[in-house]
Amino acid sequence: MQVALRKFFAIMPFLFGIGFIAPLIAQSMAALHVAPPWGLSHVSFGLLIGAPWGLYATWRGRWL
Amino acid sequence: MSAPDGQTLEDALIEPAGAGTGAGIAVTEPSVDTGLTPAVPLPRGDGLDAHVRRTLLQQERAIGVKYAGHNVRTWPYAVIAIGCFAAWISFFPLAIMGILPLWLGCALTSVFVAGGYVVAHEAMHSNLGRPGTPQRFWNELTGQISTIPLILPFSMVKTMHLLHHQHTNHPENDPDAIHAAPNLFMAMVKSWINRQPGAIGTGARWRRHCAELGTPEAKRAVVETMLLQLAAMTFFFAMAWSGYAIEVAMLWWLPRHLGLTYIHAVLSWATHHPHDKTARYENTRVIRHPLGEVLSFGIDYHLIHHLYPHIPFHATGAAYREMKPLLEARGVDCSAH
To answer: What are the backbone dihedrals phi and psi of residue B222, each rounded to the nearest 5 degrees, phi first?
Structure first.
């Protein structure tokens, strides 16, 4: 159980990028009436930023 | 957990090994007449003799007991903790219904996060109810609910905080030594860096401390931390994908980061800076924080807290004023207050 949780937490930044940052970006843009580029939807654009950012944080161990 | 010399941790917190040795403390003439006459008159620059040190310690302890948690009123801590926790929970539906402005909810929650740590801190030292007393339930309840906004279980913050008391300012063994920084701005930057998910972060360091402790309490703290973080992330993700990402960001995510920055920069860094001394009377200090006594939660008298952790923070000022002549006799710099 604990080992499984540890492995799960190792990819938590990636999950955080998809699970929280992506919808936060999407809903913030919608609230501010900012249109996403390239005809993307708000959610797609949020995922385009959140997923790679989370992946970077998982890989590097830091968000910036 | 036991101290290296066989003391129990509780003993070590009340009377650390080496206390009263006066190691590294230059003697100064007492600025106030303490009524103490050294057994052998000592010229300036010499150490206090054993008799004077023992007498000073006895007087200190008497003041420590007078203001200890079981001798002063502490029930308001539990009332405040329960009230703030209930208010914070209510913020989510109130914000979603548009009744509570998000900026106000964010500001109040940030205060709750920082204040919650202060209240939980009293519970860490069992100041709200010692084991075996009827008040113990409220001590534990207060601790458990106060650290939830930090997404840290009470068991973990308690374990790390008691370790901090045991090894104050030790670069490897003090969990809070990770906050050492040359100035306030860098302390805030360091606070952010320490929150990173990789090996440089507090999480990795705390796991190492828990592994080194190896106690059932430390193992339980690790498991509880994972479970609480899992529960919090589940809440974050579910709310965010249900259309309430901004509400969660403003009522939990952002206040948590603001609160942690405050806790690290004000409550930890300022009082132990420059983190280079480990002796009982030198590992923290009496300061005059720019935020004032109220906004800094009485952090000015952090020395009193480290000497006598069973004094609740609201009583450290009064205890300090009584203890000041004794501390000055030991050469402690009391010029700030």
So the answer is: -65, -45
User: Are A57 and B229 an interchain contact pair (Cβ–Cβ within 8 Å)?
Assistant: no
Cβ <8 Å between B197 and A62: yes
Query: What CA–CA distance (Å, rounded) separates A49 from B310?
Result: 49
For tokens 């939990």, the residue is: B252
Amino acid at the residue A44: S
User: Containing domain of residue B327, as a range?
Assistant: 1-66+279-337
Summarize pLDDT for B205-249 with one digit per residue, the tens.
999 999 999 999 999 999 999 999 999 999 999 999 999 999 999
Q: Which of B217, B244, B268 is the last residue of a domain?
A: B268
Into how many domains does chain A fold? 1
Which residue(s) pair with B8 in the sheet?
B2
Shared domain check, B297 and B238: no
Domain presence at residue A50: yes
> What is the rounded CA–CA span in Å between residue B220 and residue B161?
16
Neighboring chain A residues of B200 at a CB cutoff of 8 Å? 61-62
**DSSP secondary-structure letter at B2?**
B
Which range has the worst mean pLDDT, B26-30, B267-271, B320-324?
B26-30
pLDDT of residue B45: 42
